[in-house]
Structure formats: structure tokens, C-alpha cells
Amino acid sequence: MDRELLKGSTPILLLSLLTEGPMYGYQIIETVLQRTNGSYTLKEGALYPALHKLEAAEFISSYWQTQANGRDRRYYSLLPAGTAFLEAKKKEWSLFVNMVEGFVGPAGSKG
Amino acid sequence: MDRELLKGSTPILLLSLLTEGPMYGYQIIETVLQRTNGSYTLKEGALYPALHKLEAAEFISSYWQTQANGRDRRYYSLLPAGTAFLEAKKKEWSLFVNMVEGFVGPAGSKG
DNA sequence: CCAGTTTACCTCGCAAGGCGATGGGGGCAA
DNA sequence: TTGCCCCCATCGCCTTGCGAGGTAAACTGG
């Protein structure tokens, strides 16, 4: 996957995932990996800064949760403002895709 | 249009436009502006560096042409390697869009 | 004739994102 | 005790788009 194309897609991806419920960082990476059949490895250097930025903007919130092991995980969950932001981002995404495809020609529904 | 989303989309857009024939910089900007109904102004600071990079990679070539006015324009045209590169980029684009939409849910065909 | 706009090229410094590398620490199994 | 997996995170680098700035010639209106 082209690294430049990916730029800017992380927030919408993260917010979308979190609509399914709270998740922690490592889980997000694994989920993305599995759902894309291994074709997209969301990198830690992209994930954590994006998560923190989303939290600073109060689109998501985090809480630490201790497991039976005694180990801690940081869970992130969507806030109402995040849901609204996601909707705006979706519109932007749609505009963007339609714009590019207006020049390139529609993408096949399968890559 | 989100500036971060745009990143990486310029080469595929440029190459796609050039499949229609040679074009010069200013014309590209105007064409993009018109075809998007004014919603996307391709900036010079993004255009020229992208064009030069594509040329350095030998995906496109340029030539100066003097008009009746006596003024010069630099036209860019697609090279065979550029056509091949476009095809690869299109596949990448398709993969990218399908990937994101796998999480976000499909974009409406109209924004 | 001259000012302002349009056409036309281009570069530079800045901000922001993803990536690779690196680092810490705990749990678990051979 | 060694090594792997889980889990968090940061830092410097590279690349991109953008705003601003620069040059220059032709056209337009007064």
C-alpha cells in the first residue's frame, strides 16, 4: 500500500472502528491486519500519535483497564463529538474519492 | 477538501489527465478546477514539484512550445513507462479505497 | 501610454502524516 | 534464563501539500 495515499486516512479508519465499541491499540493493529487479510499493517508510529491527537481533540476518550493477568491495557472509546466528526469525515472521504475517480475512472469493486 | 487526504493522489491524477493528451501546467490547474466545479484547486506548489518528479522518473516528458503570441508553454506528455505506472497506481488506488471502505462502509456515489 | 489583470513558469519554508528504529516492561513457555 | 509475544510509546527522517513569494510577458481598459 502506498504510504502517501494512506496519509490522512488514519483518523476516519480509527473512528470507524471505534463505532463497534472500545478497543485498545494493539487490538486495533491486529484487527486491521486481519480484516485486510494481512495487506495493511497499521504501524505503531502512525497509530499512537493519531489516537492521542483524537483524544486531545476530545473525539475519543481513554481509560486503563487491568486484566486478570494484572496487566494494563489502554482502551479508547468514541465520544459524541467523535461520532459527529466521523460523519463529517465520511462526507469528505466521499467527496475525495468521487473527485479522484472523476479523473481516473471508477475503481473496480475488487482490487 | 482535506489537505492530508489529498496527499499521494496528485501523481495518479496527473497521469490520468495526460492520457487525454499533452497538457501544460496552467491548463492542468484550470482543467481540474472546471471538472470539479471549482471544488478542487490544484495548487502550483503541489503541481510543479509533482510534474518534475514524474519527469525525473521518466513517466512523462516535457517540451517547450511557442505560441502565436510568441509566449512559451511547457507541455507534458505521457511516456510508455508512465502508462504502466498509471496502471499500477490505479490498482493501488483501488486497493486503498476498498480497504478504507471496508472499515468506513461504502461511500455514497454522490458526496 | 500606463496600471491592472491574466497567463505562465517556478521555488522556498512550514506543517503534518506515516515509517523505521528504538525503548521499556510484563507474562509465559521451553 | 532466554526468547517470544503482548502492549505502550516516542523520535528523527522523508515526503507531501500549501501559502507566499518571485519573474516575466501579453492583454485590457482608461
Walk me through what this model shows.
2 copies of one chain form a homodimer. With 111 residues, chain A is of the alpha+beta class. Chain A is built from 5 helices and 3 strands. In chain A, helix 2 (10-18) crosses helix 5. The longest helix of chain A is centred in the last third of the chain and has 25 residues, at 80-104. A 3-stranded antiparallel sheet of chain A has the order 1-3-2. The first copy, chain A, has helices spanning 3-6, 10-18, 25-35, 44-56, 80-104; strands at residues 23-24, 60-66, 72-78. The A-B interface holds A 1-9, 12-13, 16-17, 32, 35-36, 39-40, 89-100, 102-105, 107-111 and B 1-9, 12-13, 16-17, 32, 35-36, 39-40, 89-100, 102-105, 107-111. Chain A binds a DNA duplex (30 and 30 nucleotides) through helix 1, helix 3, helix 4 and strand 3.
What's this, in brief?
The structure is a homodimer. Chain A has about 110 residues and is of the alpha+beta class.
Main interface: chain pair and counts: A-B, 39 and 39 residues
Radius of gyration of chain A: 16 Å
Query: Helix and strand string of chain A, N-terminal first?
Result: HHEHHEEH
Structural class by secondary-structure content of chain A: alpha+beta
Taking the alpha carbons of the first and last residues of chain A, their distance comes to 12 Å
Tell me the major beta sheet of chain A.
Answer: 3 strands, antiparallel
Give helix % range of chain A: 55-70%
Strand order of the largest sheet of chain A: 1-3-2
Shape call of chain A: globular
- Strand content bin of chain A: 5-15%
By DSSP, the count of extended strands of chain A is: 3
Oligomer: homodimer
Poorly predicted sequence stretches spanning 5 or more consecutive residues of chain A: none
